[in-house]
Amino acid sequence: MTATPGLAAPASPSTAAPDLFRAVFRRHAAGVAVITARGDTGPVGFTATSLTSVSAEPPLLSFGIGTGSSSWAAISGADHVGVHILGEHQQELAATFARSGADRFGAPTVWREGPEGVPVLDGVLAWLVCTVHARVPAGDHRLVLAEVIGGDPAGAGRPLLYHQGRFTALRD
């Protein structure tokens, strides 16, 4: 193996463990989304950085949710979910939906009931409503596979990112 000029040699590899996993993924910048659903006692939602495009035809996406999450009970039984792409101006909204015990749908959050009764957040870059197709066990999480049935891509602004344990924005 030949070293690339100007780049440091890789450090000795670490044994796979949760700390290594977290350390590596803190280095991975990810877009920030909020997933919502209608629950038995009202709307639920959580911040997700695991949103992934799966297929264009049919339009499928996936996201992960911890089974210990306060939103899991509603997501585990929901037929439909909302997926919201947050803008760089929505760091506080992302933090609210990430915070345990927060009143996520109280002021200043602005939302409305959207298609299929899914809570739709105002002011986002884009949103989708999806039909849930599967919940696949994956360690202490479930991967949710969902098909897009509608939405709106017309919000203004630039995307919010999550990197090194904090919300941030793109730089030019």
Structure description:
It is a single chain. This protein is mainly beta and 172 residues long. It has one domain (30-165): Pnp Oxidase, Chain A (Roll). 13% of the residues lie in helices and 42% in strands. It contains 3 helices and 12 strands, in the order H-E-E-E-E-E-H-E-H-E-E-E-E-E-E. The chain has helices at residues 18-26, 72-77, 91-98, and strands at residues 30-31, 33-39, 42-48, 52-55, 60-66, 80-85, 111-113, 119-121, 126-138, 141-152, 160-163, 166-169. Strands 3-2-6-9-10-5-4 form a 7-stranded antiparallel beta sheet. It starts with 17 loop residues before the first helix and ends with a strand.
Structure summarized in a few sentences:
The protein is mainly β. The chain has helices at 18-26, 72-77, 91-98, and strands at residues 30-31, 33-39, 42-48, 52-55, 60-66, 80-85, 111-113, 119-121, 126-138, 141-152, 160-163, 166-169.
Number of strand segments: 12
CATH topology term: Pnp Oxidase, Chain A
Shape verdict: globular
Helix amount:
10-25%
Characterize the largest beta sheet: strand count, sense, and whether it forms a barrel: 7 strands, antiparallel
Q: By CATH's scheme, which homologous superfamily applies?
A: Electron Transport, Fmn-binding Protein, Chain A
Question: How many structural domains can be distinguished in the coordinates?
Answer: 1
Ends distance: 34 Å
Spatial sequence of strands, sheet with the most strands:
3-2-6-9-10-5-4
Kindly report the average pLDDT value: 92
CATH class: Mainly Beta
Percentage of residues in strands: 35-45%
Give the helix/strand class.
Answer: mainly beta
One letter per element, helices H and strands E, the order comes to HEEEEEHEHEEEEEE
Low-confidence stretches: none
The number of helices is 3
Whole-angstrom Rg: 18 Å
- CATH architecture grouping: Roll
